[in-house]
Structures are given as structure tokens and as C-alpha cells.
Amino acid sequence: MGTKKIVVLGGGESGVGAALLAQAKGFDVFLSDKGKLGDSYRATLQQAGIPFEEGQHTDSQILTAIEVIKSPGIPATVPLVKALREQGTPVISEIEFAARYTNARLIGITGSNGKTTTSLLTYHLLKTAGFNVGLAGNIGDSFAEQVLNQSYDYYVLELSSFQLDDMYDTHLDVRVLLNITPDHLDRYNYDFQQYVDSKFRILQNARPSDTFIYFDGSQPVTDQLAKQAYAIQKRPIRLDSALTGEGGYALNGQLTAQTGTQTFTIAQADTPLRGPHNAINMLAAVLVAQAVGATDDAITDGLRTFENAAHRLEPVGTINGVQFINDSKATNVDSVFYALSSMDTPTVWIAGGQDKGNDYGQLDELVDKHVKALICLGVDNKKLVDHFGGRVPVIYETQQITDAVAKGLSLAGPGETVLLSPACASFDLFRNYIDRGDQFRTAVAQLADSVIIP
User: Fold this and answer.
1) Predicted TM-score of the model (pTM)
2) What EC number(s) does this enzyme carry (predicted)?
3) Residue 287: helix, strand or coil by DSSP?
4) Are residue 61 and residue 106 in the same domain, yes or no?
């Protein structure tokens, strides 16, 4: 191969898209995946004539690249990535590579929790307002492939810390940092500050004309901001207290966002998203929409017509007056905190799975306030049972989702809620959180068909 050789590590959505874009830009491309490629991705590479390997990484093929585009799922600590960096080969993300080839304005959204909802909502608001906008990053279709085949004026990019770690020169016009809570610490040497620093890469290459939207109630965010003066237009978001300048706040059920002379207000009850965490998510999305010039009417239309992604506080049915909510995406304690904060009825809480070193203590007050029964859905429920045994009046253990749903119905009364919000990974009983949520939804539908309405 020639001297313009790019290697792509990882053959998923981002990797295959990056390979296609690199080929189109005149590079010799080789894709390597240590696992098995999906059938559609393999066919795409074959049709494009891009050489690839699966089930292995061949060092001699990879170490000769002038640049490597790495999947965010591959840790920087694996020997191959270390060897590349030691020999001076740049290792970058798909986002970094694709951003070189678009003049679109880029909106980057990150946070330990809420970034998917905020990214989907921001995209929906801009699309509703008539903007020519794409959605990419940690969600949806490959950014690189969209840059290759589309001509969007704006991109909403959901950015994980892993993607940010491999971004260096990308310039974002609007940046959103929702919160920082302990997560993925196994990738950061169990050092929370390293994870905080990773999230703050959202601010690299900032210009005074850029907009930075952030939740002012996230202690790690405000602490880090206090350490350094960032030359950027700041738009803080607050809960339960008003702002006098630009930014957003939620007070007495009203959401208010202020940018320049534009002040937008809406009652949260007039939107489809509930809970204080979603007040933050909505305010962030509205402030982005204001920053790029959306009108109040368009923002209102967008908020009222938004449908959130599956598995995130998703209502999946009502049986005999009992509402069932699928929050399978809540794989950490912080996400469950938000979910329980959103409950306004007595709740039967279904939790459990593969524990990630959870500290359930931060949920005690909310459990006391909202939870009437706990159903532990997991292979090993000891930690949940030990913590909540003296706190929740009824605890039931099962390894069957159908049993959990049926038991939830029997424990809840009309006007009450059965909430699947696991706080744990799904891998003990399910393929992933999507499989867990899908099985929950199916079990509710089957139970509804079998129950005789009184």
C-alpha cells in the first residue's frame, strides 16, 4: 500500500463509516476488528472494495498506518493502541476524522446521564424549526458516512467520554455538558478526576463566539469551571432558582430559557418529559435552539411533539389502572435517582442485574418517599436485599421478567406505577439493556392480554 494508509480499528457503525469516508478522500484503507463483523457491515466493506480482517488484529498491517481511527469501545490501554502511540502514530476518533471534511456547524452534547435524550430532543427541535440538520456520534448513523453522503448545515453530536478522549482539533460551535457523576471509572484508573478531565474535553478549541451550556448544579462541573477561565459564552442551567442573565432555569413547574433578547417559557406539564432531570435536558436543548436562531413558536411545537427514545422512562402500558414504565437504560444509580425523582405515585420498583460497584445510599430518601415494594430481577440480588431489607416493606426476588411483571401488578394498586429502573448492567440475564427493556415491554403486553378487566 501507499504512504497514505489509514487503519480503522473496529468495524461497527462508526468504523465502517470512517472507512468509507477515508477511501473517498483518497486514502488506502484497512479495517481490523478483533470480533466478528455484522453481516451488513461486512457486505458494505466488500461492496466498496475496502480490505478488512475480523477475529484478529494483524500488527504488521496496523503499525504501518500514518493514522489510526479507533472505535470508542477499544480502551487506550490495550497493547496495540499503546504501541501505536509509542511510535508516534496518531490515534483519533471517527468524530475527529469526519469533522475535517464538513463545514457544518457542530453541536456537541455530553454528560454522564441525559445526553441521549438531550441530543434527540435538540435534533427534533432544530428539525421542527426547519434547519437542515443531522444526528450522529454516540447515537444514530455514522457521522463520517453522513459527511460523505449528506450536505447538512448542522450536526447534533452525542459525545461519550471515550469519543472525546480521541478528539484533538475538532471545533464545536455549541457545547453542552449536562452533568458529571462517577461512571466508566474502570476506563480511567478508578480516578474520578481523570473522568472529569475527559468530559471537559468538550471545551477544547473553544472560541469566544462559541456557546457553552451546562447544568450549574453539578458540583464537578462548577468546581472544574472555577479552576480555569474559559473564553466562551456561558449559559448556565439551574433548578429551583431564577437567573438574571442568559441561561435557563426551572421554577414552580415553569421552564425559562434566555438568550440575548429572546426569552422562552413553557410549563413542563405541557411537554412529554417529566422529572427534574428532564427539565435540565429540555432547557439545554432549548438553549441550543436559541443559540442557532430557532423561533419561540418552533421550539414550542418541537417540545410538544417530541417522543423520547425507547427504554428511557418509556410508558409501555396500563393494566387495571397500574402504569408500567420501562427505564431499562438506567444502568447506574444516578439514572435511577432521576427516575425515582420523576415518580408522583406509589411505585413498585424492579431493579437488579450485574452490579457495577453501586452505592445505593443516595437512593434511600427517594425510596422512602416513593417505593412501596422492590422486585429484585437478577442472578445475585444480595447487595440490593441487604441494603433495602429494613427499608422497603416488601422485597421479592426472581430471575424471570414475566414473573417480575406479574408480581408488580399484584403489588401495585390502581393509580400506582411499576417501574423497571435496574441501576445495574443487564448481562446476567439479558443480552443488553435493549433486550431487557424489550422483554419487559413484551411481558407487559402479554399480561395485559391475559388479565380480565374488572
Assistant:
1) 0.78
2) 6.3.2.9
3) helix
4) no
- Residue written as cell 425523582? 341
Show the cell assigned to 35. Answer: 470480533
Residues 6+ apart with CB under 8 A from 76: 82, 85, 91, 165
Q: Which domain holds residue 42?
A: 5-92
Dist CA 371 CA 203 (whole Å): 39
- For the residues of 366-391, what is the DSSP string, one character each? HHHHHEEEEEEESS--HHHHHHHTTT
C-alpha cell at 376: 429484585
103-125 confidence digits (pLDDT tens): 999 999 999 888 988 999 999 99
Residue 161's nearest CA partner among 194, 119, 121 is 194
Q: What is the CATH number of the domain that holds 87?
A: 3.40.50.720
Over the stretch 27-55, which tens digit does the pLDDT of each residue have? 999 999 999 998 999 999 999 999 999 99
Are 248 and 283 contacting, i.e. CB atoms less than 8 angstroms apart? Answer: yes
341 and 273 together in one domain: no
- Amino acid (one-letter) located at 123: Y
Based on the structure, what is the number of domains in the chain? Answer: 3
Q: Is the pLDDT of residue 98 over 50?
A: yes
- Return the H-helix or E-strand segment holding 161: helix 161-165
For the annotated binding site for ATP, the residues are 111-117
Task: Give yes or no: residues 301 and 320 share one domain.
Answer: no
**pLDDT beyond 90 at 60:** yes
Backbone angles phi, psi at 314, to 5 degrees: -95, 115
Q: How many CB atoms lie within 10 A of CB 1?
A: 13
Q: How many CB atoms lie within 10 A of CB 103?
A: 6
C-alpha cell at 61: 498491517
Q: Are residues 112 and 226 in the same domain?
A: yes
Q: Cell numbers of 435, please? A: 433486550
Residue indicated by cell numbers 432549548: 286
What is the spatial distance between Cα 164 and Cα 180, in angstroms, rounded to a whole number?
Answer: 14
Output the CA torsion sign for 183, 273, 406, 389. Answer: positive
CB 135 within 8 A of CB 147: no
**What φ, ψ does residue 438 adopt, rounded to 5°?**
-65, -40
Residues 275 and 347 in one domain: no
* Annotated binding-site members: 111-117
